[in-house]
Design brief:
About 85% of the residues lie in helices and about 0% in strands. By secondary structure, it is mostly helical. Belongs to the UppP family.
Length: about 70
């Protein structure tokens, strides 16, 4: 809810100041792609929580953390 509210506030602030202009299509495409990827990620995580335990997720997070520390 907080991120949604901040996004809506920034969106209306941007429209009132600059208008959408050429960026309207890019903004809509970004919104739709973010919405779709977010829904897929949530469904995948819920499916994983139902079907398997979180050991795979824990291993993934540990490996990702090590990679991020090394980079």
């Amino acid at each position: 809810p907080l991120m949604l509210g901040a996004g809506i506030l920034k969106f209306f602030e941007m429209i009132s100041r600059e208008g959408l202009g050429e960026n309207g299509l890019a903004l809509a495409a970004g919104f739709v792609s973010t919405l779709i990827s977010g829904i897929i990620a949530i469904k995948l995580l819920l499916w994983l929580a139902e079907k398997a335990n979180f050991n795979v997720f824990v291993i993934y997070r540990i490996l990702l953390g090590i990679v991020l520390l090394l980079v």
